[in-house]
From TrEMBL:
Organism of provenance: Luteimonas rhizosphaericola
InterPro entries in the cross-refs: DUF819
Record key words, sorted: Membrane, Transmembrane, Transmembrane helix
Protein's name according to its UniProt entry: DUF819 family protein
KW Membrane (keyword) present: yes
Transmembrane portions of the chain: 6-29, 41-60, 66-86, 98-120, 168-186, 216-237, 299-321, 328-349, 355-377
Pfam families for the chain: DUF819 (PF05684)
């Protein structure tokens, strides 16, 4: 890990000043994400880039005690907040056939992560890269962070390189998938029941109300309680390092059995996104630009292998189960890009009946991503 510059403007022990900088970076990244460039690059990549610049200019140090606190406490809290919506019953009912396509796509991600690790030399961090990439391509960036924390993968340069490659190659993949929606060959080859996609009511359900202090307090209290209970159970079972798995299981159970009450809580995703932005700011602060560029070629090839195997699996599953082209595209984008992009594709192409399944499959990905990432870590030698 790169040593902290002695002449950083903000000292490593000045926790409040560093938090102020990181919250400001998160605000700038979230604001820029609304621009044309930001929509293509993503707020996560913008936050990392801003933090890298500040660290290179020696405004902030490369390492500090507060960074460890963000890793240890805020990342698990963020994943617990995201999982407040992980009602398994609702996911199964609402997901429909898109869930089947998602299952094949997720299996393809796991197979691709394993095959890529077997074919390519990713160095001593091979198992760690396999874990975080499989987690993020089944769940999302939140799972990338959670699995990295769970397996002790805290090398900022390596992680920042992974996020950069994810954004570059992932954007290209999503653009290609979006373009394929209008390919006549693809539509004919997977055209079953396509006439049923347009009808339906509101694409994504009723608008969420503005969160209140009560909403956020309840969400944070529930998430913190799940983290505490998950850590205690993991320690009692002798799996202290994998506490995030127990936290995930607890939150999914709570979300499923308490769905009637929890559906009225507004805004947990906002709080989770803010916390995860802090995590990516920490990655940017500790990143070494030279090492990032050096890691790029092998990681680029590795992600391409994952995407290729993912496509083979999801297309084979679609032929087997007679899924149509729209279900394939929504399920694949839910895997690789997450529920917001999957919903955007469903709305953009007029597949109104697939908007709710897009959300359902994405939330299922949040719930499964941690288990998948840690499982891949173990089978690849971690």
């Amino acid at each position: 890990m790169t040593a902290a510059p002695a002449s950083a403007l903000i000292a490593a022990d000045n926790a409040f000043a560093l938090l102020a900088v990181f919250f400001a970076v998160a605000a700038i990244g979230a604001g820029l994400e609304r621009t044309r460039l930001g929509k293509r690059v993503s707020g996560v990549m913008l936050v990392i880039a801003l933090a890298i610049v500040l660290a290179q200019l020696r405004v902030i140090p490369a390492s500090a005690p507060v960074y460890g606190a963000i890793w240890t406490y805020l990342v698990p809290l963020a994943i617990a907040l995201y999982l407040i919506r992980a009602d398994l019953l609702g996911i199964v009912v609402e997901g429909g056939r898109t869930l089947a396509a998602f299952a094949f796509g997720a299996a393809g991600v796991v197979a691709g992560a394993w095959l890529g690790a077997a074919w390519l030399d990713l160095g001593p961090l091979e198992a760690q890269y396999a874990a975080v990439f499989s987690a993020t391509y089944v769940g999302g960036s939140i799972n990338f962070a959670a699995v990295a924390e769970a397996i002790g993968f805290r090398e900022p340069t390596a992680l920042a390189a992974g996020v950069a490659i994810d954004n570059v190659v992932g954007l290209g993949y999503l653009l290609a998938v979006g373009a394929s929606a209008s390919w006549p060959w693809f539509q004919r080859r997977f055209g079953w029941r396509s006439e049923q996609l347009v009808g339906g009511g509101d694409a994504v359900g009723p608008a969420q109300r503005v969160p209140t202090v009560l909403d956020l307090a309840l969400a944070l209290a529930l998430a913190a309680l799940a983290c505490a209970a998950g850590a205690a159970i993991a320690a009692a079972m002798g799996h202290a390092h994998y506490a995030i798995l127990y936290t995930t299981a607890l939150m999914v159970a709570i979300a499923t059995f308490g769905r009637r009450w929890l559906k009225d809580i507004a805004g947990p995703e906002l709080a989770a996104t803010l916390l995860i932005y802090l995590f990516f700011a920490v990655l940017g602060a500790g990143a070494d630009l030279g090492a990032m560029l050096g890691a790029a070629p092998s990681l680029f090839a590795y992600v391409l292998v994952i995407f290729a195997v993912h496509l083979v699996f999801i297309l084979a599953g679609a032929r087997l189960l007679r899924l149509n082209h729209a279900e394939i595209i929504v399920a694949s984008t839910a895997c690789i890009g997450g529920p917001p992009i999957a919903v955007a594709f469903a709305v953009l192409f007029g597949w109104r009946r697939l908007a709710v399944p897009a959300v359902a499959t994405g939330v299922l990905g949040y719930a499964l991503g941690n288990f998948v990432g840690i499982g891949v870590f173990r089978i690849t030698g971690g």
